[in-house]
Amino acid sequence: MTIALPTPFRRLIAPVLLSLVAAGCSSQQMLNGLTSTKDFQRSIDLPYDRTNNLSLDVYAPAGQSGRPTVVFFYGGRWSSGNKNQYEFVGGALASAGYCTVIPNVRQYPMVRFPAFVEDGARAVKWARDKIDDYGCDARRVFVMGHSSGAHIAAMLALNEQFLKGVGGSRTWLRGMIGMAGPYDFLPFTDPTLRDLFGPADRFEQSQPILYVDGQNPPLLLMAGEDDETVAVKNTRNLANSVARAGGPVETVIYPKMPHERLLSSIGPVYRNQSDVLAQIKSFLDKWSNNSYVKPGQPGFETTPFDQ
C-alpha cells in the first residue's frame, strides 16, 4: 500500500530520511511510500513474456491520454531488483506527463548476457503493441535505465540487432536516457562479471560503446562525479564516441552526486535538490515533439559532450 503524505509533513521528515539513506537504509521503500498516487493510474503484473514468466507495470498519468511512453529498466548489477521497488520512478515520470513501463527482466545467475537485453527488447515490443490500450502513445517510445538498467537501455539504442530480433528497429525509439550506466567497462577482473558476460571471446560484445555508429536515436547520458559504483568515465567515453560518430547525444555530469542519489533525485524527497527530473523532462519534451532525423539530413543537430 502506498501512503501519500501531505507536503508539510514530507518537508518535516526529509532530513530524517536523508540520514537514514546515508546510513544504508532502503531509499526505494521510503521514496515509494512518499509517492503520491494522485499522479498516475497503475496497472500491475501485466505479462509480456509468458514463456519466461515476465511481467511489467504501467503508470499512466492521471487525467491524460495519448502521452509518450518511457520503458524504464532498473539497476542491480544484472542480478537483483524488482519492478515493485520503483513506484517512485513511475510516479515521477507520470508527474512530468509521461507514461511509464517498468518490466522485470531475467537476472544472473539464472541467465547470462545477452538474455536480459533480449527481455528488454520484448518489453519494448509489448509497449509498441499494447500501450495504446492504457491511454499512452505507442508511436513515441523512449528507453531509460539506471546503472545496469542503463546498460540494457543503451544496448537497445545502439545495437539494433536486439529490436530486430523482435520484429522492430531503432526507429521504434524516440530516445534513450542513461543514468550512471556502464557502457565501456572492460577489462573484467571480477569473477562474477566474467561468468555473467562470458565466454572471454565475447566480452567485447557486452560493451555498448562497441556499437556506436552515429545512427542512434537521441541519447541523454547523466552521471555523477562522486559515483563510486560505476565510474563516470563510462558516460564520458560513450558521449565522446557518439559525438565523434555524428550521433545525437546530450550529457549532464553532476559534480557532487553519488550513484544511487542520481536516480533517487527524481523521487519526492530529493526532487527539489537538483534538476535531474527537469533535465529528463526537457529531453523527453524535446524528442516527443520532434522526430529523429538521421545524420546528414536537413534538420539534424548534435549536442556533443563538452569537456
Q: Give the biggest beta sheet.
A: 8 strands, mixed
Poorly predicted spans? 1-14, 20-25, 297-307
Summed up, the helix count is 10
Cα(first) to Cα(last) distance is: 45 Å
**Range of helix content:** 25-40%
State the CATH class.
Answer: Alpha Beta
Strand content: 15-25%
Decide which structural class fits the backbone.
Answer: alpha/beta
CATH overall fold name: Rossmann fold
CATH architectural name:
3-Layer(aba) Sandwich
General form = globular
Average of the residue pLDDT scores: 89
Can you count the beta strands? 8
Our Rg estimate from Cα atoms comes to 18 Å
What are its keywords?
307 residues, alpha/beta, Rossmann fold, eight-stranded mixed sheet, 8 strands, 20% strand, disordered N terminus
Task: Write structural notes for this entry.
The structure is a single chain. By secondary structure, the protein is α/β, with parallel strands linked by helices. It has a single domain, classed as Alpha/Beta hydrolase fold, catalytic domain (Rossmann fold, 3-Layer(aba) Sandwich), CATH 3.40.50.1820. The protein is built from 10 helices and 8 strands. It has an 8-stranded mixed beta sheet with strand order 1-2-4-3-5-6-7-8, with helices on both faces. α4 packs across α5. The longest helix is centred in the N-terminal third of the chain and has 16 residues, at 7-22. The protein starts with 6 loop residues before the first helix and ends in a 19-residue tail after the last helix.
